Amino acid sequence: MTENLSTSAADRPWEAMDSGVIRHAIDPALLGHAEISPKGGFEAGSHASFTLVYTAGKFGIDDSGSLRIVFRFASDQSNPQFDDPAGPNYCTVEASNGAVLQLRWDPKGNVRPWDRTLWIKVVKGFLQEGDTLTIRFGVTDHGGPGMRLQTFCEKTFEFRILVDPIATFNFQPLPVQPMISIVPGEPERYVAALPSLRRPGESFALKLKGEDKWGNPSDRCAARFLLEADGAIEGLPASVELTPGDRSFTLPGLVVATPGKVSVTVRSEDGTLVAKTNPLIVEDLELVHFWADMHGQSEETIGTGSAWDYFAFARDLAWMDACGHQGNDFQITDAFWGELNRITAEFDATGSFVAMPGYEWSGNTALGGDRNVFFPVEGRTIRRSSHALIEDQTTAGTDCFTAAELFEAFAKNGEDDVVCYAHCGGRYADIRVAHDGRFEKSVEVHSSWGTFEWLLHDAFKLGYRVGVVCNSDGHKGRPGASYPGAGKFGAIGGLTCFNAAELSRPALLDCMRKRRHYGTTGGPTGRVVLDVTATFEAEAEIYHDDPALGGALSHTGKTAMMGDIVRLAEGGAELSVAVDAACAIERVDIFNGLDLLETVRPYAEADLGARIRLHWEGAEYRGRFREVIWDGGAKLSGNTIRQAVPVNFLNRDKTLDLVSDSEVKWKALTTGNSGGADLTLADPSAGTLAIETPLVTTEIDIADIGYDDTIFDDSGELPRFFKLYRLPDENAATSMRFTRKLAIEAEKDNPLYIRVTLEDGTRAWTSPVYVFR
Prior knowledge:
Immunoglobulin-like, TIM Barrel, disordered N terminus, mainly beta, single chain, 5 domains, DUF3604 domain-containing protein
């Protein structure tokens, strides 16, 4: 591509301010201009070199004046460095008139979302009109590879320049900004998907795409693939041809006429396995499955790409059935709120795609913390947590500074059709400070920021009856397929599966209110098919709304599904569990609230082999800086390692290396989620294994690693641990069906739910069935 991309502030009337409160004290036309070379499109995650030349405007830049080149918070490009000319990301800056400059890189050196800052200060001399600053990013003159670009695509990646020409510390943006495009690379893997639950005779589509090494849908796919149906799928061709240009391929008009389970295997022409879809269960049911990522942001707040592109990606490239945009409220201007409502109205199409209006109430944790807000229709009042990044204060009177005030405002204004989620991103929701079950129906237990089971546990401790959702909270412009990329992210964005009668806003909102959904950690195997049904020995009263809030209606029955609230006067319950997945199931944990009742595995102790799972998990604490570094290794004595396979190494900067036949080393992090490695040994029981990480150092006999977990606990404020256990050499179990009799405790809520773990590290949680006497 040779297109010279540029952008003007006039094109973005909803954009948040760049610096101080005095926006345009100087005519932007007098600030100068900048050009970047080369221009065009550059592959995500690749190394490149750029020369950016800033030409000073009318005022020049005075002694002690500055220029900032700022990048979005969401970008995971490598940081510039100034000390090692032969190293990656080497950067130089030179003034045409010889002025002495001071350089500083500060990842929080400017107002969000443009907070990643290269700060260039004139410390001796000055610039006059026409003088230039030449900034070279990724200098390769001395053997360096260049600068590594961000790992996700962006049509308009800006090198945004802010100037303080008069040394007043009032930085103003250039009227036209230099930019490039970040484009996908060659496909490294292929992903295929079907719906997960449909009725006999309903038409559906097979979706297929290639993804580059960073998870971007690739437009460079050129291959013919063979399609194999496991089950009777009418209309499925024998092959499909992928051609360059498209980033996703759809085969519509498929039908399964009779109840059963089907899937599709994709192979290359030589028979090599390329991809396998999730299972599709076909049953004659009232409720079927719709997959969604209801939480993420675009460039108008702190994300990447426009809001229009955001919804288009979810629908067309991540194959979501539904999506919501949850921008930080303190960055959503009235103009952008109007634009966002226009976009959701444009994308919403009953039967094919649901675009849900809403926003993220982004209050400080001390005031309640982040909440997702969803509306049934456009045009509703946005009640912000503040106007922190909005200059126009016209609508500041509708602000709600605390989560309690937000809920009170909904109730006072008769907005009982609003649905809220509590979630954890940077700020975390503290439901001990505020919660209102009339509106807040669920908690988000997983996103690209990590895993937050503690939020569900908080609800149990407080007696709240909430459902479970998982979303991406993604900032990389990839809702529904939000890979972590590089940097400090270690989790892929989650997905929520809604049990609903149809694909429409009213049906999904009804599902949200009744908590009839479950969440997964997402990824290629994230569309796990789950069903949990509770059957009771006696007639029970079954509620959709929480009777503890008063006025809830009920009906009588002997069965309940996830999300139901059940008053059971006597007798016990039987939990029926069905799990179908695209990869092997490692375990299913059955919980009654905080209590783990049983772990059910699809294999017996006699099936164990020479495969040892190393597993690390946890978070430092609830807030932003929750990451736990697990860099370390394992040494084997008296045995040898035949194979080492990484588990949940989703961040490509993190690696597992088999350095010898007796030692592995790794770089890894977690943010509440988990990772690990499988070591297949030459002898299943000989020798000892020594583990060394920053948190856990231990040695154990191989013979002592068995069916049950051996846990080395280093928990602090939150769970944080390393564990070892043994697996079969081969586990082919991708389906499980079982029932369990469960006693109902009289003096407490009994939130009955399951957590599923697949061998590749994918997890899923069902919303609980709440049973009480």
